[in-house]
Amino acid sequence: MDDQPRTNPSLAAMTFDQMLEHVRYEGAYPTRERAAESVYTVLAALGRQVTGEERVDLAQRLPVEAALTLTAQIPDTEQLTGWGFIKDLASRTGATPATARWDTGAVLAVVSRLAGPDLLDRILQRLPDGYALLFGQAELRRPQPVT
Length: 147
What we know:
Mean pLDDT: 89
C-alpha cells in the first residue's frame, strides 16, 4: 500500500494557506504562525494514530503540506484513546493538557470538514474511544459485547 499523499489538486478543497486561516479562526490564534504550529503538531500526532486506507484517503483530501506532515509519521503500535492523544500531545509539546485540547479541536474541526462525513466516520470507527469529541462530533457509545 502506498502511504504517501498523492497530489491531485482537484481533490484539495483548500490550499494550505486557506487551511491555516481556518485554523487561525477556529482557535482564535493571534498569528498565522501560531496556527501553523498547531497544524503541524496535531497532524503529526494524528499521523501516529491513523492507519490503513483511512490514512491514505485523508492525506488525499488535505493540502499537500498538511498531508506530508500526516504521512511523515510512523504509526504507533498501540493506539491511544482520545484522552491519551491529548496527554501525549501535551507531553511532546510542553503544553498543558488544556492547551493541547484547544489546539487539537481547532485543527481537527478543519480536518473533519476536509475529510467529509463518510471518511470521518471510517476514521472514527478505526480509532479508540474519545476521538469523536476531538473532531467536534457527538461521542456515541460503542456497543459492548454481551457477557
